[in-house]
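> @MW can you paste both from yesterday?
MW: sure, first one:
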Amino acid sequence: MRAKGTGFVFIFSLNLLLLPTLRSQENWRFNNRLQVGTFYDNNIFESVQNTENAMVTSAIFQTQGRRQFDKIRFSYSYSNSLQLYPQHGEEHKITQIANTEAVWPVHPKIQFSGTAGGTAKFFLNAPFDFILSHSSLRLQINLPGKFGGILQVDGTQLEYAETDQFDFFNRNYSASLQRRFSSRLLLESGYSVAVATFQRRAYIETEPGFSMAIGARQQDELKSIFLRCTAGRKYLFRLTGEYIQNQSNSIGYAYSGLRFSGIGAARFMDLWLLRMAVILQDKRYSEPIHPVNLLEFDLERSETNSAVVDLSYDFKTDLSALLRLSFYKNESGLRGRYYNKDLLYLALEYRF
């Protein structure tokens, strides 16, 4: 694992070397940031009962670039983060996130766009490495009466290095309709269907308390319908309500529920910036709870109930201090059982 982590540190260093070359190209616009901090984690192993806390050192480098190529607008973002746990070396990890987007306005009322990217998480001393890749195509149409429509298809693939128990490929189809009532108010409603096919086999219940693997792979179908409201100009507030329903050919994975999420941001006295994000979800399983595997092994990606508050202060236009409070109540490796996790994060951020 150390060799793989070292390789990505090399890639990170190479990106730093390439920045001066990229900057010399005409028509490119770049934004970069370096964030260094420390945080207190009161449940580093996402445990239901046996919690253990630790201090963690964190460093994040991110670069973003954009350019106009005739009629096509291209942008990218890349970040590399390192987390070190002084007393728990098995949790040391490097996370790489890369995304690209191309936007093509073929008509004043019609726009095509495509995105691609992925997340790679590498543990330096533990066999939990994975890569999550994604791509999407979107058609956006401006309709009469200040309405707008979006049709989108997405593909997502998850690959763990040491096991295929959680690997899957997901295809998602969605459509939404939005209307802008003013420069400060936007309403949107949509529907999506996603089909995930796993590498692992599906299980059926042969009798109460006993199950058996079948020849087919596990396949889940997730349907959702949402309503979203976005308001504000100098401030931002977005609230989304969503009904979700998941069906599966493997016992223990069928459920339905409601999910509410909200984000907000406001700036005070030109120096203070307050941001927050909240997710609340109520899950109800159709079948008795079984100690079956989660859809994903990395519990940090399965945030079902969370609240995050950021407060930052700008010393200068390019230097800020950040305080973050995070609270989680997420589903653990056992269906229907939840763990609690709180984080306190302090950091300095330099933008260039």
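MW: second:
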Amino acid sequence: MKPTRVCQLSRIIKRSLILAAGIFFLWGVSVGHALDPDEILVIANSRMAGSTDLARYYMKNRNIPKERLVSVSVSANEVISREEYEKAVLIPVRNAVKKIRGEGRIHCLVLFYGMPLKIDQPFFPPNQREIRLSKKQPDGASSQKGSDSPHKAEEPKDQRAAVDSEIALVLVDSYPLDGWLENPYFLGFQNKKTLLQKDDVLMVSRLDGPDQKTVLRIINDTLAAEKTGLQGKGYFDARWPLPESKQLSGYALYDAAIHSAAKLASSRMPVRLDEKEALFGPGECDHAALYCGWYSLGRYIDSFTWSKGAIGYHIASAECTTLKDTSSQVWCLKMLEKGVVATIGPVYEPYVQGFPLPDIFFGHLVEGYMSLGECYLISLPYLSWQMVLIGDPLYQPFKPPSPR
């Protein structure tokens, strides 16, 4: 996980307040709008036992129209080639979205248990490696190189990606495959021109895990937590004290964002903020409802008893490399096994600036106006890249404050 160039935390936090002011618009409607069930397209894998049944169970409980289910036939392996992704996933999903868009509006895709997780790097023969695909951007469009964005960084030449992050661009016919693309919904990019437009991008999450039982529990626990409101404590594990400087970059920026997220979450629940380099120890965190911390690479620490409906987010470079290998200790897999209903992680190295900003994600989640999927989308800097959201995109664990 490598650091970004200089970023201004104060600029990003200031932009994140746009939503609370009612100026920021997500789907062309005001902040009071949250994702609706009829705006969702559900994607199941006909070659994975249980995928379609779980998808139908979810749709029934969320009142998603039956015709919003798309069944694809794709390998149940976690890693697929770019060619298989395009033929077996991209084309059928694109056709379904375009067909439904003639009758209504699709804003969100939900990938179900058994859908592949990762797109592998294409193989380039030695004599072709110097001429590999890297499409030019249109005149006047923002380039990642030399960008003046708060997340300014050198673009890594990498065509690997999370299936979820790639399928978010299902409506875009052509775009550069090398590296990442700036997410036009990210609050840090609202005052700049990006290659992608908001109409190009769909929200994506997945309901997935090591087995069918886990996915069923995620669905049921999510619904139960919404009825009562998420109960428990917040645990935020920074590594250093909050610096006085507002000119922050790389790890310092994200560590400060964990501090800020803890402060915002304290409006809803008791919060414990740790600012020492050591992580929470085993058994230290009872009734955990929200968690964000770092950095234990691919090694889950069993610190938590999770509340029903809990959300956990560990910032490290390998935490969603698998959701099926139960011998693995990656955080996303282990947190799902232990009881969370939602988590975020990368399938390959994302670089530190590729992670969602914790203060934007948790800050808007506890406000209660936006769903889990929407909070993820506005906190995520890049698409066609490595991050995955696991959880019900409709999940709203907190209700907005009552009007006074």
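> thanks! The first helix runs from residue 9 to 16.
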